[in-house]
Amino acid sequence: MKIYKNRQKTTEICTVDEWFKNCPPANPKKQWVDKRSALEMAKFWTNSQKQSDFQSFLQKVKKDISFDYAIPERATNFDNYRNPRKNDLCIYARDKNDNILVSIEGKADEQFGNNYVYTEWIESLLEKRVKSESKKMERIIELYNRFDNKAEFLELRYQLTYWLAGAIEEAIRNKIKTVFLIVQEFHSNKTINQKITLNASDFDYFVRFISNGCYENVSKNEILGPINNQYTKEIDLYVGKYTIDFL
User: Fold this and answer.
1) In a domain, 217, yes or no
2) For residue 44, what are the CA distances in angstroms to 47, 48, 140, 184, 247?
3) How many domains does the chain have?
4) In a domain, 128, yes or no
5) Are 227 and 209 in contact (CB under 8 A)?
6) Residue 79 neighbours by CB under 8 Å, 6+ apart
């Protein structure tokens, strides 16, 4: 599978150095280090054997899936405001029937964002007081409406809500019928077990919410789905976790 800087495919990425040059993380000094997700994602996905291993993982539920190309740091719009959702990696794939989008969120033990929705909402109100042009409050309200105005939505990690929204809207724009949301974890002697456990709890709560309670939790190297409901806008959604344990 080839990796490109953008959908125009003007710049191909073949090495870790090219990945960093064309699609650097927001905070290179902190993120571009061994055993942290940004650098480990680049190492993993520029290795053709590891790409094949991951494809085999997805074939547990989509046996005919094949990868076309991938884009790191792919921005996906889910509303009309600035600052679209950035995916660590988007893979455009297919099987014998349909086009498929695989959105991957890399994690060592980093949280799914700093806040839960209710905290972000409070902060957006305070921000609006000092910066009237801020649209963060409007964005959160639109997401709240998108997820049926349920009180449980407030307990979700904010990052997870717009990860799903961005992936679904990207799929709709490209006439894609199947979406995978995969957390790719890198566990090592640099990760903290308590943080990994919290991430697992937050992700499980997200899965319970978006599946309307059909699924309770996601184990290591497991894929759940398809989920097809009002939250996925009639797109078949699969959620999963792919874990690499460094010795």
Assistant:
1) yes
2) 6, 8, 34, 10, 16
3) 1
4) no
5) no
6) 139, 142, 165
Using alpha carbons, select from 123, 114, 91 the residue that is nearest to residue 238: 91
pLDDT of residue 247: 66
pTM of the model: 0.95
Task: Kindly tell me if the per-residue pLDDT of 97 is higher than 90.
Answer: no
Contacting residues for 18 by C-beta, under 8 A, at least 6 apart: 12
226 domain residue, yes or no: yes
Ranges assigned E (strand) in 9-153? 12-13, 66-76, 85-94, 99-107
Residue 93 CA to residue 120 CA, distance in Å, equals 34
Q: What is the pLDDT of residues 109-127, one digit of tens each?
A: 999 988 999 999 999 999 9
Identify whether 44 is part of a domain.
Answer: yes
Report pLDDT digits (tens) over 49-92. Answer: 999 999 999 999 999 999 999 999 988 888 887 778 888 999 99
Rounded to whole angstroms, how far apart are CA atoms 164 and 68?
A: 22
Instruction: Give the domain range for residue 76.
Output: 2-113+157-245
14-43 confidence digits (pLDDT tens): 999 999 999 998 888 889 999 999 999 999
Binning the chain into helix, strand and coil, the percentages to the nearest 5 are: 40, 25, 35
Question: Are 140 and 127 within 8 A, CB to CB?
Answer: no
Q: What angle do CA 211, 202, 125 make, to 5 degrees?
A: 100
